[in-house]
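Researcher: We are triaging several targets before committing to wet-lab work. For this one, the compound of interest is zinc ion. I'm pasting the protein sequence and the ligand SMILES. What I need is the predicted three-dimensional arrangement of the protein with the ligand bound, expressed as structure tokens, so it can go straight into our comparison scripts without reformatting.
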Amino acid sequence: MKAVVYEQFAKAPKIMSVQDPTPEAHGVVIKVEATGVCRSDWHGWMGHDPDIELPHVPGHEFAGVIEAVGKDVKSFKVGDRVTVPFVSACGACPECHGGNHQVCGNQTQPGFTHWGSFAEYVTIHHADVNLVTLPEAMDFATAASLGCRFVTSFRAVVDQGKVSAGQWVAVYGCGGVGLSAIMIANSIGANVIAVDVTEDKLALAKSLGAYATINALQVPDVAEAIKEITRGGVHVSLDALGHPTTCINSIKSLKKLGKHVQVGLLLADHATPPIPMNLVIAHELEIIGSHGMQAFRYDAMLAMIKSGKLRPDKLLGRTISLEESIAALTTMDTHNPPGVTVVTHF
Ligand SMILES: [Zn+2]
Ligand SMILES: [Zn+2]
């Protein structure tokens, strides 16, 4: 099969012809029809993820058609249209038994723990636990955009932040995660304030339902600006970018008893930001992480998509070829156009 392979970190990947994968007894092979280009892929390529062994194929947010099925798989067959959350769970550890597949102790992640979806085919383990059947009406590019940023945002806003109608929510960073969070929080009746440093992303945030937008380059203190708009701070704030500055500003913009949800990855030099614990204690703040979402929680999200309350298709940016994915991946830190970039030609 054709795949994007990197043999060294931070050195340009190449298109290569590699061996076709075969499914494990509990797994499947999926023919990739669409795969998103995500900042986590960039982190992986830069060498920030200790799970990655070289040579490696990136890609973890995808949708496609089942090409081959392992002998123990019960609920899926060749030809099924499917997607997956980016964390594949084992289904058998204490976390999985507790319903928390997103933090499975034996988790696998295509594009990190094994070869990913910047290729014609990708393997998924424990298929019965992890596959999600796509609704008939959903195209592959939209489905691919769900598996990482959209589901993580859904869990961050709905399950972790427990955002409710009428609450104030701040979202720091208007990339794929942030725009998803804005749409989701808005759809359940929250008033959302979007923060970014680029006007085109803030305009997109506004079009997706943000009540107010703040260009962080144009105000002396973002948290103060938020407190002014909300008269005291937000109930829930998300760092959807993953940077010490946005993480700390997010915490500072909370009202008392507020919740900070960390969604953007903090890796390498950014892994241990100086959290203002004085505020956490004095204001009884909560700091919560969000790491993907269980496959079984897709039902609620897909129902909101079906009813038109959520429109992930609006988050799609450009569609590109597998060849073009190399430039999209390697320039992600310097050139990051609005919306989710999806590979649709293999
Ligand atoms: Zn991702
Ligand atoms: Zn598990």
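Researcher: Any quick observations?
Model: DSSP finds twelve helices and 15 strands in the chain.
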